[in-house]
Amino acid sequence: MGKPRLYVLYGAVVWKVAEEWRQQGAAPVGSWWLHLLLLFAARGFTYQFWFSYGNMLFFTRRRRVVPDSVDFRQVDAEWDWDNFLLLQTLIGATLVGSPAVARQQLLLPSLKQAWDPRGWAIALLLHVLVAEPLFYWAHRALHRAPLFSRYHAAHHHASVTTPLTAGFGTPLESLLLTVVMGVPLAGAFLMGVGSVGLVYGHVLLFDFLRSMGYSNVEVISPRVFQAVPLLRYLIYTPTYLSLHHREKDSNFCLFMPVFDLLGGTLNHMSWELQKEVYLGKNDQAPDFVFLAHVVDIMASMHVPFVLRSCSSTPFANHFVLLPFWPVAFGFMLLMWCCSKTFLVSSYRLRGNLHQMWTVPRYGFQYFIPAAKKGINEQIELAILRADRMGVKVLSLAALNKNEALNGGGTLFVNKHPELRVRVVHGNTLTAAVILNEIPSNVKDVFLTGATSKLGRAIALYLCRKKIRVLMLTLSSERFLKIQREAPAEFQQYLVQVTKYQPAQNCKTWLVGKWLSPREQRWAPAGTHFHQFVVPPIIGFRRDCTYGKLAAMRLPKDVQGLGYCEYTMERGVVHACHAGGVVHFLEGWEHHEVGAIDVDRIDVVWKAALKHGLTPA
């Protein structure tokens, strides 16, 4: 059953709340039906909070238990992670609506009691004496044949845990957790000391500890355990849980390792490893860095630490993100004032760590003259930081290599000639991707953005193939400069045009400059628009086809990739990103900045294919 249809099951609960609201003429604050919905939202927020925190690599990178990232396979496996929340809420609704429960008045009187310390004491006692040992022995049983393969193996499908992994399991596991969590509450209510505060407090604390343990980030300082040694047997840690997921033969407890100690299943390496993780001994410097920037406010929410259901699919303006727009706008202002380049995501390729860093600037800011200096300072600091860390190659994305901003990266290379990190704009592969999309039987093309860095390279390459290039530019000086770069026998294939009319019969348009609907009308029916303009043009013509931005699919042996790069499909990255990857894999020692070397277009293309990158 799909998740939207599962949420429809909540219709009855919502209807009950609406009915009580109508009858009372005000919000039914004393309604258990309302509390069920509020508790469901609060629980979801708890898991989302820890998920976001765990994936804020700029905060947590040094304290990650398992340094690897979650891949798309794990994302898809855990897609319906909140099924257990739906199940438990529906079980709660069944109890609230049960005539037997109503007759015994087990729940309704407790609404008048917001807080009762006796209930908390009983719940704590039952948790320690009943819930913890029940979970421990049931969990050990689930790790024995044939129960493990049938009911628990899926929960151990990945070595990298996240708070969403905590909710991923079979219905049997969800029911077990429901019983374990419900025993202390049931005991308190049966003894007449239950309260609304107990329900919220116990359930949210239960979820808080579960998601903390699965967060894959150490949050408890080893000094705490050194100061109070007994505490290590009363509260587990993310390292403790991660060892269980990896070894599968120890650390079975719910929250309290004392039960592993009593049961003889305690992994005594738990706290030594926890100390190493907390002190950052798992941290590793990247080998390759792709330096991106934020596109716009909506795209700023397309990151792994916001909503995984969005970031693991190509970017789109999801309606669920609209309520968060004011928050994202506030973060934009904050980053503009006091932020620096930060780590967003990572993956591994052939044993090497690749990371994506982001300059805290948005697309529109690159066109503000007063912001130019600050943006270059941000990029320069990122390059120098990468150099200190021992990064081999740093690739500049989109506007970070803008010619008017820093000469395609030449500003930094000239200013710091001693750089060991190789700075790459990746435009050589971008040009190669665009050129290899053009059918071999094409005789003429129409080129906008003709005097740009990419436009120049494309024009010079095509004229050598005896393809006539209609170069749209008002600057005769720039056109003639490019034309003179071509061998004399091929210069005739470069033709300057100043209007769109000459392209009325050309069905191959290479778009390096934004086209309005009116300008697109000059293209004949059947035209294909190849694009290297950022952002891409909007397809207004139904009788034409529109290509996507130049991109390459990463090799099949990439590991830990679970994030879609902007509008790219899964496993696909922008060509400038891929160009940096090829530069790194080839071990080239030169910087790739400034003008594109036309003679290297085919060299870079063949190198990309050799290393397993494929056209997207």
Automatic annotation (TrEMBL):
A Gene Ontology MF term for this entry? oxidoreductase activity
Biological process, per Gene Ontology: lipid biosynthetic process; response to stress
- What SUPFAM superfamilies has UniProt attached to this entry? NAD(P)-binding Rossmann-fold domains
- EC main group: lyase
Cell compartments where the protein resides: Endoplasmic reticulum membrane
Origin superkingdom: Eukaryota
Domain Very-long-chain aldehyde decarbonylase CER1-like C-terminal, by residue range, is 445-615
**Reaction(s) catalyzed by this protein?**
a long-chain fatty aldehyde + 2 NADPH + O2 + H(+) = a long-chain alkane + formate + 2 NADP(+) + H2O
Q: Which residues cross the membrane?
A: 32-53, 119-138, 175-205, 319-336
A GO cellular component term found in this entry reads: endoplasmic reticulum membrane
What family is this protein classified in? Belongs to the sterol desaturase family.
Please name the PANTHER family in this protein's record: STEROL DESATURASE (PTHR11863)
Quaternary organization: Homodimer.
**This protein is called what?**
aldehyde oxygenase (deformylating)
What does UniProt list as this organism's lineage? Eukaryota, Viridiplantae, Streptophyta, Embryophyta, Tracheophyta
